[in-house]
Specification:
It contains three helices and no strands. By secondary structure, the protein is mostly helical. The two termini are about 35 Å apart.
């Protein structure tokens, strides 16, 4: 059985995943700027940092899309119930 989330819970989760997404993009941009200016001589783990940030960003983006789809499904279910009510009263 799937857990039904309230609108407030969906909005809170949406803010979290949006924050993760933008933070990962900021990390990639910062790494690119530092690397291109030569300010940082990077070890291997730091060179792999953009890939890790991109992975987190992609995961947050995917999670946000699934939350939006769930929200749309909930709304269409409510519309479907309302339409059955309208048809029954006609």
């Amino acid at each position: 059985m799937t857990k039904v989330l309230t609108q407030e819970q969906l909005e809170f989760r949406s803010k979290i995943y949006t924050g993760i997404f933008w933070t990962s993009l900021a990390v990639i941009l910062l790494w690119y700027i530092l690397k291109s200016t030569g300010l940082v001589q990077t070890p291997l783990w730091f060179e792999l940092l953009p890939f890790a940030a991109a992975t987190f960003g992609a995961g947050a983006f995917f999670r946000q899309i699934t939350i939006d789809i769930r929200d749309l499904k909930m709304r269409t279910t409510h519309l479907e119930k309302d339409m059955h009510y309208v048809k029954a009263n006609i």
